[in-house]
């Protein structure tokens, strides 16, 4: 009975994570706690602790109801709701893992999926060098790293960055944003890496980035390793600060190293998230095959319901079958200049 009470407290307490960071940390495990609590509720009922069993089942039901949209991968798409003439775009979200010894898997996955833009976290000088090898496909690259060069986030794009548009690089907050030209329409693309919840500095990062999120130009789409479940108070506060909505249907994306990647797809934590402004229409989400990282990639197909404009040839680098190579196209990769931030 004590175990059931502890789990119920963690589940219910997680709904008040905005008031106490400790409760938000407990709330990260709401899905797993709710599943276990269902089993305990049955056991309590069998042992004739009917009141305790009912209370446990009530708490578990509340927890499962709120995590269901985010834990169950989306099985249907909205492709059929758009006219065939409307362009579709793809964003690939990847935490590449800073200490990965096999960078080829991540590079191959990018070539294979060939998205329009890639948001990357846990950057290092070694990873930057590896990603620059993709400059023939992604000539528009931006890296945001702290002064000590122990990297964090990056954005790779086949489509050009809008000249003169605002560039955001907040290395201590783990955030970068660039305005990308999608067929003549400017869209803000962001890459976010939050640290762990309490006792980590996640909430300090959210507070530090709130003003910058509010100032972003819309439409906007942000991919990142949030180190927090999409139902958590920290992600909710982040979304509210930028007027964004959290994309559902991604499913678990991270598991400890000892957990096989196939099991992490179902029993892991959904901490790699995508957030979009109201102008962005999400068509489909998927989790491609794992790389050498402990995070699964996330591929999002989206549309921008604007009239299609004729796209000049210089506006993007054409998709090519994996394994082909061209001379470098477009402007050279560009490094974002990190402003000094008092932390």
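^ Assign residues to that structure.
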């Amino acid at each position: 009975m004590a175990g059931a009470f502890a789990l119920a407290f963690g589940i219910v307490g997680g709904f008040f994570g905005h008031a106490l960071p400790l409760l938000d940390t407990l709330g990260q495990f709401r899905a797993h706690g709710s599943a276990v609590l269902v089993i305990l509720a049955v056991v309590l009922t069998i042992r004739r602790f009917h009141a305790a069993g009912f209370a446990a089942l009530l708490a578990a039901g509340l927890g499962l109801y709120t995590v269901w949209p985010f834990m169950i991968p989306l099985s249907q798409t909205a492709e059929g709701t758009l006219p065939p003439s409307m362009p579709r775009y793809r964003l690939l979200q990847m935490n590449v893992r800073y200490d990965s010894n096999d960078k080829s898997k991540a590079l191959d996955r990018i070539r294979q999926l060939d998205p329009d833009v890639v948001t990357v976290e846990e950057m290092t000088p070694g990873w930057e060098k590896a990603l620059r090898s993709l400059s023939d496909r992604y000539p528009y690259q931006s890296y945001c790293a702290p002064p000590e060069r122990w990297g964090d986030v990056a954005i790779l794009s086949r489509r050009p960055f809008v000249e003169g548009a605002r560039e955001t690089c907040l290395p201590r907050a783990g955030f970068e944003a660039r305005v990308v030209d999608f067929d003549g329409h400017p869209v803000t693309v962001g890459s976010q890496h939050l640290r762990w919840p309490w006792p980590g500095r996640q909430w300090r990062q959210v507070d530090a980035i709130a003003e910058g999120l509010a100032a972003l130009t819309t439409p906007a789409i942000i991919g990142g390793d949030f180190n927090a479940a999409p139902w958590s108070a920290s992600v909710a506060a982040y979304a509210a600060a930028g007027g964004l909505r959290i994309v559902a249907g991604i499913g678990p994306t991270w598991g400890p190293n000892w957990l096989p990647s196939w099991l992490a797809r179902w029993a892991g934590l959904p901490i790699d998230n995508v957030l979009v402004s109201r102008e962005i229409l999400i068509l489909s989400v998927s989790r491609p095959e794992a790389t050498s990282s402990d995070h699964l990639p996330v591929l999002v197909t989206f549309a921008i319901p604007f009239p299609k404009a004729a796209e000049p040839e210089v506006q993007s680098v054409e998709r090519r079958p994996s394994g082909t190579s061209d001379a470098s196209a477009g402007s050279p990769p560009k490094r974002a200049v990190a402003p000094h931030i008092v932390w």
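The chain is about 30% helix and 20% strand.
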